[in-house]
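hiii so um. not sure if this is the right channel but i have a protein structure encoded as tokens and i wanna go backwards to a sequence. like what aa goes where. can anyone help
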């Protein structure tokens, strides 16, 4: 196998690893795993904005489903924490993916690729 063939395989592996991260859920600081695909973040953000715009206050309890389909009772502040954590998780995941892709593109040997 040539270095270019190995590089192409490594890039595919990096992309697959990245995609899989979003299907595994994200551990929140609230003690449960949340769905973390882009549409999940959008849905939570829409829910947050709706609740703010309709006068919900932080003492009101909101029920959401976690990654494992368990119901979780959270507050408006908890919802904002989850949204912020999901944003950070997504941005960090992109940074990791891009850094690995750059390393793969700059690798000068198959052995170096295998360490990425």
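sure thing!! here u go:
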């Amino acid at each position: 196998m040539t270095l270019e063939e190995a590089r192409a395989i490594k890039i595919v592996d990096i992309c697959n690893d990245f995609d899989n991260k979003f299907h595994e859920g994200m551990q929140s600081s609230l003690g449960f795993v949340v769905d973390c695909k882009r549409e999940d973040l959008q849905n939570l953000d829409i829910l947050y904005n709706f609740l703010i715009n309709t006068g919900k206050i932080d003492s009101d309890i909101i029920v959401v489903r976690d990654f494992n389909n368990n119901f979780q009772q959270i507050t408006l502040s908890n919802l904002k924490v989850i949204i912020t954590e999901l944003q950070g998780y997504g941005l960090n995941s992109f940074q990791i993916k891009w850094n690995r892709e750059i390393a793969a593109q700059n690798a000068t040997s198959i052995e170096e690729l295998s360490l990425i």
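oh and The longest strand covers residues 62-65.
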